[in-house]
Specification:
heterodimer, A: 112 residues, mainly beta, seven-stranded mixed beta sheet, four-stranded antiparallel beta sheet, B: 109 residues, 10 strands, globular
């Protein structure tokens, strides 16, 4: 089973809203990732969690706040986003960092 | 450095073979991955190379030369469903995955 699930599939939010994206995997992977992808561009790394600890933050604005409640779950809390934050947000996991990553289907976010 | 280069677009006929090249800076190399991404969908893992040589998986094969900083993805017996973007991604010593810009492959009947 190489499934990573993400909810919701689509999200429309205003610039003053607070929302959360959720990601779950049951493959026993110990590294989990958040990526942002704009149309016709490759995924851009945002955050990496390794063994439930934040190991990489790619200088992401504080309006994005990651959380890893346990080894299977990864959240991305959103607050006061800008229209340019509209994108596909992808979660991925791997057995450990530097091994193949398996991506979830993504959340299509639109900020109005 | 991460400069990962791959062609922007390639077109081929159904049943043919296409080879997508990828070059990268060799310093700090830790592994190379190929992903397939259909429009509007998430990337799907295709292959992983960390040692020199050819890895074959059905119709898809991937080759790596670490000394040359070079890889290719070979797609054989092309099918219409192979029309997608193919992403070359490299892991360096910082354990971050750096993606190339992607190669859009169009398969024509």
């Amino acid at each position: 089973d190489t499934e990573v699930t993400q909810t919701p599939k689509h999200l429309v939010m205003g610039m003053t809203n607070k929302k959360s994206l959720k990601c779950e995997q049951h493959m026993g992977h110990r590294a989990m990732y958040w990526y942002k992808q704009k149309a016709k561009k490759p995924p851009e790394l945002m955050f990496v969690y390794s063994y439930e600890k934040l190991s990489i933050n790619e200088s992401v604005p504080s309006r994005f706040s990651p959380e890893c409640p346990n080894s299977s779950l990864l959240n991305l809390h959103l607050h006061a986003l800008q229209p340019e934050d509209s994108a596909l947000y992808l979660c991925a996991s791997s057995t450990r960092q530097a091994r193949e990553q398996y991506f979830g289907p993504g959340t299509r976010l639109t900020v109005t | 450095g991460q400069n990962i280069d791959q062609p922007t677009e390639m077109t081929a006929t159904e049943g043919a073979i296409v080879q997508i090249n990828c070059t990268y800076q060799t310093s700090g190399f830790n592994g190379l991955f190929w992903y397939q991404q259909h429009a509007g969908e998430a990337p799907t893992f295709l292959s992983y190379n960390v040692l020199d040589g050819l890895e074959e998986k059905g119709r898809f094969s991937s080759f790596l030369s670490r000394s040359k900083g070079y890889s290719y993805l070979l797609l054989k017996e092309l099918q219409m469903k192979d029309s997608a973007s193919y992403l070359c991604a490299v892991s360096f010593n910082d354990y971050k995955l750096s993606f190339g810009a992607g190669t859009t492959v169009t398969v024509r009947a």
